[in-house]
Design brief:
Integrin_alpha_Ig-like_1; mainly beta; glycoprotein; elongated; Immunoglobulin-like; 82 residues; two-stranded antiparallel sheet
């Protein structure tokens, strides 16, 4: 965490995730749906303490394509503490 957080928020940090796949006979590319949920253990109706910076929500979903037998496909998302 540093003083220069995007979007004028404090308590900013990054969440990084990577996917890697390999398998004999598997297709050259594999498609995955990634669903991230921050502060998952908080009760459903409770206010979440951590949010994604770009959407100001606690959930993020995206489709990712990974090449069979290649290095991992990685992404980072900025999040912040309320």
């Amino acid at each position: 965490m540093g003083p220069a957080c995007p979007g004028g928020v404090s308590g900013h940090f990054k969440v990084k995730y990577c996917l890697k796949a390999s398998g004999h006979g598997a297709p050259a590319t594999l498609n995955f749906r990634v669903d991230l949920m921050l502060d998952r253990l908080k009760q459903k109706e409770a206010t979440k303490r951590v949010l994604f910076l770009h959407s100001r929500t606690f959930q993020y979903s995206k489709n990712m394509t990974v090449s069979n037998g290649r290095g991992p496909a990685c992404e980072e998302q900025s999040v912040f503490l309320r």
